[in-house]
Amino acid sequence: MTAEHFTWLFVTMLGLGLALELWLSGRQLRHVRRHRDAVPDGFAAAVSAAAHRKASEYTIAKTHTHMFEAIYAAMLVLLWTLGGGLDLLVRLWGQVDAPLWRGTGVVLSVLAVMGLLDRPLEAYRAFVVEQRFGFNRTTPAVFVADTLKGLLLLLALGVPLAAAVLWCMSHAGPWWWLIAWVVWTGFSLLMMWAFPTLIAPLFNKFTPLDDAALRTRIEELLQHCGFTSRGVYVMDGSRRSGHGNAYFTGLGTHKRIVFFDTLMHHLEPTEIEAVLAHELGHYRRRHVQKRLLASLGLSLVGLALLGWLAGQSWFYAGLGLSAPSDAGALILFLLVGPVLTFFLRPVAAALSRRHELQADEFAAAQVGPKPLVAALGKLYRDNAATLSPDPWYSVFHDSHPPAAVRIAHLQGLARN
């Protein structure tokens, strides 16, 4: 392949992906507008007509923002590659004599600049879209503090990881990508272990659940499901957002059950138990392990592909780099990877939706379908999640089945 051919392939894939994204978003807008005045069957008891219209307007606002973000992201990819942004940054760091630190500087600089370029969009989402619909609780001070903490974490974690991968690329021979994969695997497992107790508390406050009766119910459910953890915690999610959620996180003995305080305020004890049972369903059905193995398998394939591309001169020239370099290859791969894999999104989304239905089934078996149906109705209402997404948009973007599908599935279980 020549550099010119690869350039045209890259531009074509980027253009097709953007066109498809905008077409899907247009479908979503039309579909939500068409159904915003009719609450779907099964939700009339939990979602009023006014709440349904609010969710529709919220979805429309988010979709418009998403369309702009898709265009913005495509423009940035072009500026970094064919626009010469990455090549300029590589040449600026060329003054550093030590190759390893020169490459590390390039990688961290690109990631830092990309993160900063995304912050205006984050600010718009928080202070315009979320604020308009009553969800934003983030203050400018918290937003700036989060940005600074993120940059510090990037330095603390990114410098050793980037240096390790670049060292493998330059010193470990033709099989460097396999050694780099081992490094990446170790780093991923370390982050899963450290996130609950070392990283997450930098951004949020976690307090043990103090409702004795609810804690007893939860501990009985955990024991019944064979789930051991470091405790059940409530997170101050209301400090940043009015949205509610629950999750478990961590690895090994560092697993934690976490509820957003916003969720605790809106659900009954039986409904909270049902939400927890759903999360435990992911654990008992080994979804976390399966997703981790899939992620590690894809990273192995990706690094093997990068190992081949790094030796091809057309890969650099076709994407705007004047000279090959390890750091350039790594960044180009991170930029181009999402462009070339965009059309695989439905596969990942379908697997995720399947896992969600399996977790619903597990929860229904533990606490019955009705509490989970009631909890889902309140969560969709309180989070202003659309009850009528466009089917094709959902295929590409939704990690959870549409609300109507989940409710119908649970009601079917109740009848059996």
Annotation keywords:
four-stranded mixed sheet; 416 residues; 72% helix; single chain; 4 strands; mainly alpha
Lay out the secondary structure.
Blueprint: H1 3-34, H2 49-80, H3 85-92, H4 99-132, H5 140-171, H6 176-199, E1 206-208, H7 212-225, E2 232-235, E3 246-249, E4 256-260, H8 261-266, H9 269-284, H10 287-309, H11 313-317, H12 326-341, H13 345-367, H14 369-382, H15 391-397, H16 403-415
Helix pairs in contact: 1-2, 1-15, 2-4, 4-5, 4-12, 5-6, 6-10, 7-9, 9-13, 9-14, 13-14, 13-16, 14-16
Quickly describe the structure.
This protein is 72% helix and 4% strand.
Strand order of the largest sheet: 1-2-4-3
Strand content: under 5%
Total number of domains? 1
Percent helix, as a range, is over 70%
Assign the structural class, choosing from mainly alpha, mainly beta, alpha/beta, alpha+beta, or little secondary structure.
mainly alpha
Strand/helix succession: HHHHHHEHEEEHHHHHHHHH
Mean pLDDT figure: 89
Number of beta-strand segments:
4
Largest pleated sheet:
4 strands, mixed
User: Low-confidence parts lasting 5 or more residues at pLDDT below 50?
Assistant: none
Radius of gyration: 23 Å
Total helical elements: 16
